[in-house]
C-alpha cells in the first residue's frame, strides 16, 4: 500500500517537474537537471528520529557521499543531523555546511597522517579501520588524550547481500578488523585494554541489496563484542556503538520500504540490549534519507529504431546514473515520461530503451521498458535518484555536472524552487582539464 507521504511526494514531484519546464530551467539549453524534494528529505529525517526514539542517546549522521551538495548538508545540519565523511572533500563540505566538529564522524579506509592530525586536533570522531592505523594514532597522540571519540571498525563477516560491491561484511571485505580471523578478538580486546581513550566500535555492514536481518546480525556481532570487551575490562570502556547506515531503498515503486521502524525492530531482535541506553549510538544512513526525494529530469533529443529496437536518446546517462548504466540488473530505476509541457504522458505505449549521451553502446538508463510512446522534446524522469546519482557525477565524455534544484510545494499547489548547484559550464570543464597548463607537454618535448 502506498502511504500518504509517498502520494504527496509523487504529486509534488510532478508539480516541480512541470514548473521547471515552464520556467525554462529544463529545456533545449539545459536538457538535464536534478530535482530534490525538501519536504521528502525532512520527512525521512523525522522517520529516522522517531524510529530510534528511546532511552539510548543516538547521534544520527548523514553519509556525505550519498549527496555531498553543501545546501543539502546544511538542511540536514539544520534538522539536527550529524555528518559522516570519508574524504578530505567530504570533510570540507561538511564544515562548509556548518556541521560542528562534534557532530562529524570521520570514516575512511585510507586516512592520511594529515587528515588524522586535523580530526584529532578538532575533536572530530574517528573510526579507525585497522591496527596499523591505530598504531599511527598512538604516535600522533604521543601520550595525549584525543578530544573526540575514537572507534575501531569491525567486519563482523556475516556475509554478502545481493550486490557484491555493496556488501562490506564478507569474509574478505577490505573494511575493518575481520573478527572471525584467528586472534582478531584477542587483538581487539588488547587494543582497548591498552588505550583508555579508545571507546567505540563501528560496524557498517552493507548497503543496497543487504536484507535487514543480515545487517542487524552484523550490528549484533559488534554489540556482543562490545559487551564481551566491557566485561573483561570494566563496564565503561566501550561507551559508543556506531552502527553505520545501509538501509536498502525500494526502487520498484513509490513506497518507503523497508522503513526505519522495520530496521529498528530487526535490531531489537538481533541485539536486545543495543538500544537500552547503556551505549551512545551513532548511525550513518545515506541512501535511505535521500534517494526517494530525488529525480533526474532530462529532455529527449531524438528517437530512433535499430534492428527493431526503439531507442529514446536523452542527456542522462552514465555521467549521472553511473551504477545503473554499468550494473543495470542491480540498479534498475523507475522511469516516467512527460510531454513537452511537463505533463505526465498517457496513451499508447511502446517497448523502448532510454539511452544517454555517452559514447559507448551500454549507456542506457532503462532497457526494454513498456512506456508511453516517446517523442523528441518529451521529458524523461529517472525516479529515486536523490542519493548517489546527480550528486555523484562521473566526468565521462567531459559532460558537465547538471544544475540541481530543491523544491517545495505549498498547500495551494504552488511550487517554489531553489538553486542547490548551478550547472557546470563547458568553460569550467575545460579549465579543470588542465587549461592553465595547455603548453606543458609541447614545451617539455621542445626543451
Ligand atoms: C557508504 C557508507 C554509509 C552509507 O551507506 P548507505 O547505504 O548510503 O546508507 C555509511 N557508513 C559508511 C562507513 C559508508 O561507507
List the helices and strands and how they pair.
Blueprint: H1 4-22, E1 32-37, H2 38-52, E2 58-63, H3 70-78, E3 82-85, H4 88-96, E4 104-107, H5 113-122, E5 125-128, H6 131-141, E6 150-155, E7 177-178, H7 184-194, E8 198-202, H8 212-233, E9 240-242, H9 260-270, E10 280-285, H10 287-290, E11 294-306, E12 309-314, H11 322-326, E13 335-338, E14 349-355, E15 364-372, E16 379-383, E17 403-409, E18 415-421, H12 426-431, H13 440-446
Parallel strand pairs: 1-17, 2-3, 2-10, 3-4, 4-5, 5-6, 6-7, 6-8, 8-9, 9-10, 12-14
Antiparallel strand pairs: 1-11, 11-12, 11-16, 13-16, 14-15, 17-18
Helix pairs in contact: 2-9, 5-6, 7-8, 8-9
Bound molecules: pyridoxal-5'-phosphate.
Describe the structure.
- The protein is of the alpha/beta class.
- It has 2 domains: 4-36 and 291-432, Lyase, Ornithine Decarboxylase, Chain A, domain 1; 108-285, Alanine racemase (TIM Barrel), CATH 3.20.20.
- Helix content is 31%, strand content 23%.
- It is built from 13 helices and 18 strands.
- The strands form 2 sheets. Strands 1, 11, 12, 13, 14, 15, 16, 17 and 18 form a 9-stranded mixed β-sheet that branches.
- α2 runs parallel beside α9 and α5 (113-122) crosses α6.
Question: Short summary of the structure?
Answer:
The chain is of the alpha/beta class and 447 residues long. It is built from 13 helices and 18 strands. Helix content is 31%, strand content 23%.
Query: What is the number of E strands?
Result: 18
The CATH fourth-level homologous superfamily of the largest domain? Alanine racemase
Main β-sheet: number of strands, strand sense, barrel status? 9 strands, mixed
C-alpha geometry: globular
Contiguous uncertain segments of 5+ residues: none
In terms of DSSP E residues, the strand content is 15-25%
What is the name of the CATH class of the largest domain?
Answer: Alpha Beta
How many domains, as an integer?
A: 2
* First-residue to last-residue Cα separation: 71 Å
How helix-rich are the residues, as a percent range? Answer: 25-40%
Radius of gyration of CA atoms, rounded to a whole number: 24 Å
